[in-house]
Specification:
Blueprint lengths: L6 H8 L39 E4 L5 E8 L6 H5 L13 E7 L4 E7 L3 E3 L11 H4 E5 L2 E4 L6
Antiparallel strand pairs: 1-2, 1-5, 2-3, 3-4, 6-7
Length: 150
């Protein structure tokens, strides 16, 4: 059984003068992290939309359901550069993975937060992957199935 060690005590022992730099004790936090506290002066980014929410693109005729969120741009530079400069979104915002659809086809889309708006229609989506990931709860709302999230 691991001995309970405070974070401060662990740090002091691990970097102590003339001592080994690797702590021998397992690190256990003595209290939970405060999600409102700013650690190392980094402010967490907040996503405007949630997984399972139905959205549509602000400029292009497609809609979809969010199945994953990146807090900032996390695609390839080649993909980013392929977007015309005059409509290229900023990288420092959340990007959403969507099971997307338009009148002709179904696909997966990667869209910046600035280009999404809430889809108010009650029309259900027909993307074939939705059934594997979500349960429809009625009136166009979706809930992530248990065991699907990583």
């Amino acid at each position: 059984m691991a001995r309970r060690v405070s974070l401060l005590g662990w740090l002091q022992r691990s970097i102590g003068l003339g001592r080994r730099k690797v702590a021998e004790d397992t690190l256990l936090l003595d209290r939970p992290l405060d999600r409102d506290q700013r650690y190392n002066d980094i402010t967490p980014l907040l996503a405007k939309f949630q997984i399972g929410q139905v959205v549509r693109h602000r400029h292009f005729p497609f809609r979809g359901i969010i199945f994953d969120v990146d807090p900032v741009f996390a695609n390839t530079e080649e993909w980013y550069e392929s977007i015309p400069e005059e409509v290229r979104p900023r990288k420092d915002q959340p990007f959403y993975h969507l099971f997307a659809e338009n009148e002709r086809t179904h696909y997966v889309a990667y869209v910046s937060e600035q280009n999404l708006i809430i889809d108010d229609s009650d029309t259900p989506l027909s993307h074939p992957d939705i059934q594997e990931w979500f349960n429809e709860t009625g009136r166009g709302r979706y809930e992530l199935k248990k065991g699907v999230a990583n």
